[in-house]
Amino acid sequence: MIRFLLTKLLYLVPTFLGITIVAFGFVRVLPGDPVLLMAGERGLTPERHAELAHQLGFDKPVWAQYFDFLTRLLHGDLGNSLVTKKPVLGEFLTLFPATVELGIVAIIIATLVGVPVGVLAAIKRGSWFDQVSMTAALVGFSMPIFWWGLLLIILFSGILQWTPVSGRISLMFFFPQVTGFMLIDSLLSGQKGAFVSALSHLILPSVVLATIPLAVIARQTRSAMLEVMGEDYVRTAKAKGMPYSRVVMVHALRNAMIPVITTIGLQVGVLLAGAILTETIFSWPGIGKWMIDSISRRDYPVVQSGLLMIAAIVMLVNLLVDLTYGLINPRIRHK
Amino acid sequence: MTETVTNTPAVKLSDAAIRRRMLADFWFHFKQNKGAVAGMIVFVLLVLAAVLAAVIAPHDPTQQYRDALLVPPVWQEGGRADFLLGTDAVGRDMLSRLIYGAQYSLFIGIVVVSIALVGGIVIGMVAGFYGGWVDTVIMRVMDVILAFPSLLLALVLVAILGPGLLNAMIAIAIVYQPHFARLTRAAVMGEKEREYVTAARVAGAGNMRLMFKTILPNCLAPLIVQATLSFSSAVLDAAALGFLGMGAQPPASEWGTMLAEAREFILRAWWVVTFPGLAILISVLAINLMGDGLRDALDPKLKKS
């Protein structure tokens, strides 16, 4: 297992270096003078320009610039935002919990709904439930989620007035950030109604974000179950008179979960891409909205570092998925 | 597909006849999937709408009728018969804009898939065929591209190239290309040790001929399926970029861009928001249904299950 882990980690090094090269190269291939872009100042005198170029390291050869970039990165220095002048890493860490909270709730919804639907569709193959749920899954999979979010706002915030349109919690409530997760912090604050407010803000965006992963998980669970239900060991379990529910839940489901867990893990990239759209629609103060705002404000240090960190997160989650896969399925580990 | 050839060795078939039989076999399996056929019908209608837009659209998609701002659809109170699906905030006919929007979506799908497919096939073919360090370097680069969420990378590429439809399409194609490269590579690695490849090599075929004439036709099935799926994703992602203001620019009647313009009216005029999104959903769904059918018909492993 240690060897499996080390090989996997070693594989990440070139990918991570590649990601840093993309993030580093991004600023250099932008049209325009990189000094002006990264300094965010206009109408510079030639002296000031030279000074800034020196300060930002643009007067050095490219390889030296890249090396400096890597060194700073490993020291946790990701530069400062042009707009707020604050360190990018600090901003990222403040906003990241909002995205994580949204993402976790979304993946929980997607799994809790998607897996049972997939299992039921598989064991009742060809039934009306199978047909309806798989049609719904295909619709969900094809959904433009930015439109879906707008529709839900029209229905639940506009017509029914059940949920607020945007933000994470009502402005009435104010309490210190402990975990950064609004659901937990609102409970800890002990203020009446805070948790309900946080939940009502969270529910629509997380349903929107969960839509595509839910569809993918339901479809994947169904096909994995169908495959496993045809295996010899399932037939044996049935033949020896085991209750059908136990055959399904223990013998089939556990084996069918292996590809499903991979699928769930692979949804993280989908979730982060979806978070950009979802957070924009619901004005959710997370890293997706932060990236979009930074791109349109030409805040390139933020875009550069945000890109880097999001890719690094996707990479690490994929590693975790690989490791879990190895834990569940010994065949992979010992290969 | 192969059964026809192996079971009846005595019958000599011309290439064209074999191709016809393969097509018939494919159609036989494809048409058993009702959803796929429905998807194909919708897709054909979409193509017709795009091609005949100038003929069937009742109005010019950019013509602003100043006396008809935010007119609701015809069946709702206040609707007008000359604007079947109503008008938008500056008095443009929704139906005509939606019909012209089909042109954008199909064009985006075709361009993105073509670039990604050709690029991915060449890169994957080289990686799989030559192996060794060439393969390692290429596949690591593909891993790097795949580490970025596609929409985010496309957004950043658009930031570099500048907003606009063409740049959005190039960005999306770059992001999709690794999927094709990986599929091609996997298929080539499976095929290149087969006997027919060795036979062609012994007969004196050069590397180029081996790669693109001998091996490639036998790797096409997964690529076709992936191309269909990418087509629908491209329509979705381009619409998302348009929605975020990074794709087609107003007054283009691209569906995502239309949605972005309609956002501020969501609580006042449901039709300006509902119809463009519905158009995206229906097109993407139709293409995905077709893709499912193609996969079942082309992939012999899944065919019998």
Automatic annotation (TrEMBL), chain A:
A single Gene Ontology CC term: plasma membrane
PROSITE patterns reported in the protein's UniProt record: ABC_TM1
Gene Ontology molecular function: any one: dipeptide transmembrane transporter activity
Membrane topology: Multi-pass membrane protein
Keyword Manganese attached: no
Highest taxon of the lineage: Bacteria
Residue span(s) of domain ABC transmembrane type-1: 96-321
Keyword Amino-acid biosynthesis: no
Organism: Paenirhodobacter hankyongi
TM region(s), chain numbering: 9-30, 102-123, 135-159, 196-218, 256-282, 302-321
Subcellular location field: Cell membrane
Chief location of this protein within or outside the cell: membrane
CDD domains: TM_PBP2
Protein name: ABC transporter permease subunit
Pfam short name (any one): BPD_transp_1_N
Keyword annotations: Cell membrane, Membrane, Transmembrane, Transmembrane helix, Transport
Assigned protein family: Belongs to the binding-protein-dependent transport system permease family.
UniProtKB/TrEMBL annotation, chain B:
The keyword Transport appears for this protein: yes
Pfam families registered for this protein in UniProt: BPD_transp_1 (PF00528), OppC_N (PF12911)
Transmembrane segments: 36-57, 104-131, 151-176, 265-287
InterPro entries in UniProt: BP-dependent_transpt_permease, MetI-like, MetI-like_sf, OppC_N
Bilayer topology annotation: Multi-pass membrane protein
A single Gene Ontology CC term: plasma membrane
Annotated compartments: Cell membrane
Keywords of the record: Cell membrane, Membrane, Peptide transport, Protein transport, Transmembrane, Transmembrane helix, Transport
GO function terms (MF aspect): dipeptide transmembrane transporter activity
Major localisation: membrane
ABC transmembrane type-1 domain mapped to chain residues: 102-291
GO biological process: protein transport
Family: Belongs to the binding-protein-dependent transport system permease family.
PANTHER family: D,D-DIPEPTIDE TRANSPORT SYSTEM PERMEASE PROTEIN DDPC-RELATED, OLIGOPEPTIDE TRANSPORT SYSTEM PERMEASE PROTEIN APPC
Name the UniProt record assigns to this protein: ABC transporter permease subunit
The species this protein was found in: Paenirhodobacter hankyongi
